[in-house]
Amino acid sequence: MKTASAPPVLGLRQNLSQFMLLVAVNALVGGTLGQERTVLPLLAEKEFDLSLYTSALTYILAFGLSKAAMNYFAGTLSDRFGRKPVLVAGWFVALPVPLLLIFGPDWGWIVAANVLLGISQGLTWSTTVVMKMDLVGPQQRGLAMGLNEAAGYLGVALTALVTGYIAGHYGLRPGPFLVGAAYIAVGLGMSALFVRETHHHVKLEAAQHVDSHGGAHAGLTNGQVFRLTSFTDRSLSSVSQAGLVNNLNDGLAWGLFPILFASAGLSLGEIGILAAAYPAVWGAGQLVTGAASDRWGRKWLITAGMLVQAVGLVMVAAGHGFAVWLAAAVLLGLGTAMVYPTLLAAIGDVAHPAWRARSVGIYRLWRDGGFAVGALVSGVLADLYGLPTAIAAVAGLTALSGIVVAVRMRGNDHAVR
User: Fold this and answer.
1) Which domains, ranges and CATH numbers included, belong to the chain?
2) Could you tell me which residue ranges the Major facilitator superfamily (MFS) profile domain spans (predicted)?
């Protein structure tokens, strides 16, 4: 006789085992991205002889565009077909990526690998975000996003450090990318065998939901959700532009910092430490900042975080040497930690559960579009005026984004429930 499954309940403690399983899955998602952070910028220069920054950054452009587009579809697909099928599909898309990175005979193969990696990341990372929001309900959303993003970016950091060490001792290929292949195999197995669907949790929350827009927005079309998230809602649109600028400067850090550090004579090991320090502080800091935003609110943490990032970027542009750049990486990571989980939690505060997954996907469309914008803007500026000028210009954009949040975003959306 089949035993009836227990009815869903909301809360971190009540769903702890599934929540922590999803944390582990997202650490592996981050690791598949981290396999590239130290190695690919150097691969472009040393093995493929790509001298122009704009050309070398094509892989970040490809990654950003494909991930941004797939973020948008991930929310719609997870609403239509469920969260787990989208998560598993994302891992399947990643399977060819290490092979392309290892055996690619020309740069086009590397770009193709990053198109697939972007699609995979859009499906897997977006879905782990939505599933955690589903499980915890409204009360601990900042904490949940902090744990999710901490796991992902600690995975990025650890893998950037490990692959830097492997590249320094065994070469740029194939060793670093074998780590990514192992992550993908484990992540696919965990997601297919052990992760459970969370759609029934969001239905429960929707039935209990008190809408921050006065109850008028429970059922919206995709176009209406896009306009609200991107332009018309003061908080949602502020969050979307801040996310775009945040990943614009992350794209700069990913693509150009290793080249800057190598041109200054740093070793592969030192470059690996710097490439890992930024996401490590970013990842670990979110364990604190996500929960802090539940207590203190979202707006001013986001504003301050963007300004701290701008200071870190100025230090990279104006400084020289390992010690200065390490301090700058710590500042950049701290500022990003203040912003990253708080932006996601702010989306969850405002969006109705009935269209929250779509709103998260649209926010992530804008946010990860920042990778593409960052690759283009920083690459062109670096080619024309040099690396320090490109980095300083992005620092100015980052500070301006923080000011937009301070002026436009509502200050009390986190307290509406």
Assistant:
1) 16-204+220-415 (1.20.1250.20)
2) 10-413
